[in-house]
Amino acid sequence: MRELTCHNQLLHLLFGQLSPCESLRDICLCLAAHESSLYHMGFGNTVDHTTLSRANEKRDYRIYEELGYELIEVVRPLYKDERLDDVDTDLALLALDSTTISVSLKLCNWALGKYSRGDVKMHTLLDLRGGIPVQIHVSDGRWHDSNMLDKLVVEPGAIYAADKAYVDLVALRRIHLSGAFFVVRPKSNMKFVFKDELIDKGQESNIVGDYVVELAEKKSKGLYPDELRFVRAVDPETWEIIDFITNNFELSALDIANIYRHRWDIEVFFRWIKQNIVIKTLWGYSRNAVNTQLWVAICAYLLLAWVKKAYRSSYTVTEIATLVSVSLFEKTDLNELLTAPDEKPSHLNSNQNVKELTLF
Questions:
Q1: CATH 3.90.350.10 corresponds to the domain 63-268
Q2: Among 126, 185, 186, CA closest to 158
């Protein structure tokens, strides 16, 4: 592996993420075919797929994990002023969820999941302003989602949105005592004492209840003795009644419901990961190789998010990835590539035949 530096390994894998390549063999084949262009792309030298595979298996994935967190520190502030049209708050809005990647237990014997399956879980805390990941933890399929709450570095003033799987009263109280807020769906077996009804001054018609409550059961109340806010809303599309609990009493009930609705924005990020890390052909099956692939995919996503802001592109990160994927070996001005056709300045009269010479 001495001929393959960490930098060069990263470039090989980033090329694999941003191109249609589906395997390490494809990556090395394409790069070798364009060897004359590689120097200008920053590559030191190309290697064969065996060397690249060995590096993925042996070289510590935490090199790329640390790079990922460095990129998060650079990219996340660029999106801090992004607004959510239907949520009236300047507080940081964070969504917590996980996605499961099915793998073969014969190949990934460390990735034990439920029901004798092979699963890799990626637990993600996502900043909803810009869809930027803040914290990521990769585990096997048996690691329960709520364990991620113990790993959170709580930001005072931030709002954390999560589903029922993350209802851990000890962890939720830690968020509360840290000066942060949460919006979660209560578990079906949770019981409440309704103490007061809040009058919502908004004009929303899908809010059917807004109350001050306490946990009713003695054990639960011992774990979370403070008052909670219970919001009941109707989904305007399915007419399903949905309940939320939160420790925030300042925002409107509609804002609380909309914050939780935006939790689904994390699926865009998960879709990127699942579509772009080539799940059908993992680039290695050890824990280290899978972590390396995941973290390089995250780095690729963050780089594209940075490019979007740097060039003030109106395209989404996914659209930018598509444009880049078909232009990797072209000498194309990136600003030109990332400017939508209707935003490009027109130097020609729209009524003029472009083939006609202009003499005057």
A1: yes
A2: 126
pLDDT in tens, 92-147: 999 999 998 888 888 888 999 887 788 999 999 999 999 999 999 999 999 999 99
Per-domain boundaries in the chain: 63-268
Q: Where are the alpha helices (DSSP H) in the chain?
A: 6-18, 24-33, 35-38, 49-58, 62-75, 169-177, 218-223, 253-261, 266-276, 287-310, 317-325, 334-337
- pLDDT reading at 174 higher than 50: yes
Amino acid at 320: I
Give SS3 for 246: strand
Q: How confident is the model at residue 352 (pLDDT cuts 50, 70, 90)?
A: very low
Q: Is the pLDDT of residue 280 over 60?
A: no
| Residue 197 pLDDT > 80 | yes
DSSP H or E segment with residue 212: strand 207-215
Q: Which of 240, 250, 133 is nearest to 181 (CA)?
A: 250
> What CA–CA distance (Å, rounded) separates 316 from 321?
9
Q: How far apart are CA 171 and CA 300, in angstroms?
A: 32
Residue 132 near residue 302, CB atoms below 8 Å? yes
